[in-house]
Amino acid sequence: MKIIVTVKQVPDTSGKVAVNADGTLDRASMQTIINPDDLNAVEAALSLKDEYGYKVVVFTMGPAPAEGMLRELMAMGVDETVLVSARQFGGSDTYATSQILAAAIDTYGFDDEDIIMAGRQAIDGDTAQVGPQIAEKLHLPQVTYAGDIKKDGKVLTVKRMLEDGYMTIKVKTPCMITCIKELNEPRYMTVNGTVKCWDMPLTVMDYEALKDHELIDATTIGLKGSPTNIYKSFTPPQKGVGMMLEGSGKETTDKLVGILTAKHII
Amino acid sequence: MSYNSADIAAFKNVWVFCEQRQGKMMPTTFELISEGRKLADELGVELCGILLGDDVDGIANELGGYGADKVYVCNSPLLKNYTTDGYTKVISDVVEELKPEIMLFGASNIGRDLAPRCAARLHTGLCADCTHLDVDLEGYKEFLRTGSSLDIDNMKWDSPLFDVNVNLKMTRPAFGGHLMATIVCPRFRPAMATVRPGVMQKRPFDEAAAKAVEIIHPEFSLTEADIETEVVEIVKAAKKMVDLIGADFIVSVGRGIAKDVEGGIAIAEAIAEELGGVVGSSRAVVDAGWISADHQVGQTGKTVHPKVYIALGISGAIQHKAGMQDSECIIAVNKNDAAPIFEIADYGIVGDLFKVGPLLLDSIKAAKANA
Predict the structure, then answer these.
(1) Which residues of chain B are modeled with pLDDT < 50?
(2) Total domain count, chain B
(3) Which residue has the higher pLDDT, A19 or B344?
(4) The domain boundary residue, chosen from B174, B194, B226
(5) Which pLDDT score, from 0 to 100, does residue A205 have?
(6) Whether B232 and A168 lie within 8 Å, measured CB to CB
(7) Which residue of chain B has the CA closest to A232?
(8) What is the pLDDT of residues B6-49, one digit of tens each?
(9) Same structural domain for residues B154 and B20?
(10) Is A260 part of any domain?
(11) N or C end of chain B: which has fewer CB within 10 A?
(12) ipTM score of the complex?
C-alpha cells in the first residue's frame, strides 16, 4: 500500500527574479525550492502514512541536482524517491512531462489500493496541468483542488474546493489527488531524518529505463514531442511612476481626493 | 477516418466551453464568448459554444447575444453536476467528431480540471491561464507595442515551423508574473487555452443575435460506467464571496496591517464602503490567515482592473502587481518610500496606513458631502 507523490523543484519566484536581456529567466541567480503546493501533497501523504502505514514514494523529473531536494523529502519522512532524468526529457511542456512521469510511475508500478498525489500547480508555470494529465495517461480518476481527504478502505472522500464553495467527491483507489495549501501545514525535516536520508533509496530512471514504455516515443517527449512551443517571451511593461504626494497628513489626503474628484475618478 | 489531431487542415471554427453550475451560466463564459468572437472573425470562421448539463437549452440563447453563432448542447442527467470523467468524455468525443481548430475554457477550478484532461486525451497542446489571445499577427504586434518592452519594428516574426498568421498566439504570465510568454500550438488541433476570469472584455449584449443563435444537439454516448467519481454534495460558501472581478473600487490591505490586523481591515472596509467597493488583499495577508482567500489579488489570486485600486500597506511584490497593475488608477500608501508598489502607483503617499487611511476616509466623506 503506497502513495506516490510527484514533486517539482522550482525557482523561488517570491523573491527577486532576474531577467536576462533576451527576455529569458536568469535561473543561475535564483534559489531553488520545493514547489510549495507539492509540499502540501507530501504532507498529506505522510499523514496518511502515519495513520494507515502507507509507504510514501516521491517522483520528480529534473536535472541531477534535484537529488538534494529528494534527500530533504526523505528527511521529512518520505520512504523512497525516484529521479526521472535524461537529456531527452528536457524542454518538455506539460503534455510531454505528464507522458514521461506517467511512464515512470507505471514502470515503478502501482496497485488497487495506491494513491497518486501532486501539488495543485507549480509556481514557475502555474499551469495545474501535469497532475490531471498524468491521471489521464494512467487512466485514473482524479480529484483536483483537494482541501480535505478522508479514507475508508478503498474509497477516498475528498473535499474539492471551488471558487464559491466546495464539492464532496467519493473516488476509489487507485486515483490522482491534487492538493492545495489549505489542506495542511507541511512538517519539517527531523534531525534524525537529516542523518538517515543519505542512506535511503534514491533511484534514477533515465531514458534507457523508460524508452521501451508505450508512452515514450520521440514524438511525445522532450522539446520535439511537446505540442506547445514558446513563440515570444518578454517582460511586462513597467507603468511609469506616478505622482508622489508630499506629506502624510490631512492636507495630503485632501489634495489627493481633490485631484480624483476633479478628474471625475471618484 | 479516425481522429488525428495532427491533421490540422481538417479542423475549423472556434469553440468555447460554456461552464454552468446548478443551471446558471458562469459569468466568465460571456467574456470567453466575446473573445472567441474576435478570434473567429480574425479567422473568418464560426464561433460555437459547447454547453453540458441536464436540460440546459434554456440558457443557451444568451450565448448568441455575446457573439456565438451556434451552441452545441449536450443534455443528460449524468451531466447535471460536473464530473471530470463525464465532461471529459463528452467533450473529447464531440471534438473528435466536429473538429474545432481553437477551443477556450475559463480558467476556473473546473476549467483547470477539465481542460488538461481533454488536451491529454486528444493529444493536443493547452496553454493555461491566458491573459491575451490573438490570431491576427498585426493585432498581436499592436498588443506588444504597449504590452511589452520589445522592439516591435526590428524583430523577426516569421517562423520556419508554422504559419504565424493563422496560429493562435496565447499570452500568459509565467514565473509569478516576472515574465510573459506567448505560446503556440502549431502541430496539433484544437489549440486549447484556459483564460483567466475577469481579463477579457464582455461585448454588449445583442438581443436579436441571442434569438438567432442556432442550437444543436450533437450525438454523444455516456453511461454511468463512464463516471468513476461520485459527487456526494455541492456546498455553496455560507458567506457571500467577494466580487473582486466586478468591483469598480478595491481597497486592498497588505502585510502593513500586521500590528493591528482587525483595525487595518476595518479601515479598508470603511473606505471601501464609502466608495461602494470591496476589500482585497495581498497573498501575505491570506497566507497569514488574516482574511479569507476570496479577497486575494495577484498571480495566484484574482486579476482585477477596477477604476480605483487603493493599496494600503502593500509592498507590491511582482506576484501582486500581476493581478492589479491594469487598474485605471492606483493609489498606494506605504511607510517605506522604496516599496515597489510606488513604481506603478498613479498617486503615492509615504506614511502609516493606520494614520493615512482614516484621514483619506475623512477626505472622501468631506468631498462627497460637498458634491
Answers:
(1) none
(2) 2
(3) B344
(4) B226
(5) 98
(6) yes
(7) B182
(8) 899 999 999 999 999 999 999 999 999 999 999 999 999 999 99
(9) yes
(10) no
(11) N
(12) 0.92
Residues B136 and B272 in one domain: no
Count of A-B CB contacts under 8 Å: 277
Alpha helices in chain B (DSSP H): 27-43, 61-65, 84-98, 111-122, 137-147, 207-212, 261-275, 283-287, 318-324, 353-370
A 10 A CB-CB count for A110 gives 18
pTM of the model: 0.89
Q: Which of A160, A181, A254 lies nearest to residue B363, judging by beta carbons? A: A254
Mean pLDDT of A166-182: 97
For residue A98, the model assigns a pLDDT of 97
CB contacts, 8 Å: A155 with chain B = none
User: Which pLDDT belongs to residue A134?
Assistant: 98
Strand-pairing partners, residue B360, are none
**Residues in chain B within 8 Å Cβ distance of A238:** 149, 343-344
Among partner residues B113, B129, B325, which is closest to A239 by beta-carbon distance?
Answer: B325
> Residue with C-alpha cell 501532486?
A118
The domain that contains A128 carries what CATH number?
Answer: 3.40.50.620
Q: What is the pLDDT of residue B368?
A: 87
Q: How much is the pLDDT for A24? A: 65
pLDDT digits (tens, 9 = 90+) for A96-123: 999 999 999 999 999 999 999 999 999 9
DSSP-assigned letters across all residues of B162-179: S-TTTS-EEEEEEGGGTE
B206: domain CATH number is 3.40.50.620
Q: Are residues B172 and B253 in the same domain?
A: no
Q: Which residues of A touch B364 (CB under 8 A)?
A: 257, 266
Interface touch A265/B307, C-beta < 8 Å: yes
Give the per-residue pLDDT at A239. Answer: 65
Domain assignment present for B59: yes
Domain that holds residue B144: 8-226
| Residue A238 confidence (pLDDT) | 67
CA distance B209 to chain A (A): 31
Q: What is the DSSP letter of B249?
A: E
- Is residue A28 scored above 80 in pLDDT? no
Structural domains of chain A, count: 1
Spatial separation of the C-alpha atoms in residues B132 and B123, rounded to whole Å:
23
CB contacts, 8 Å: A11 with chain B = 175
Q: Which three cell numbers stand for residue B352?
A: 502609516
Q: Which residue of B has its CA nearest to A20?
A: B179
A211-222 pLDDT per residue, tens = 999 999 988 999
B183 and B324 both lie in a single domain: no
Closest CA to A132 of B110, B231, B106, B3: B110
Checking if the pLDDT of A254 tops 90, the result is yes
Instruction: Write out chain A residues lying below 8 Å of B342, CB-based.
Output: 241, 244
pLDDT, residue B365, reads 94
- Asked if the structure places residue A262 within a domain, the reply is no
Residues B58 and B182 in one domain: yes
Query: Are residue B188 and residue B300 in the same domain, yes or no?
Result: no
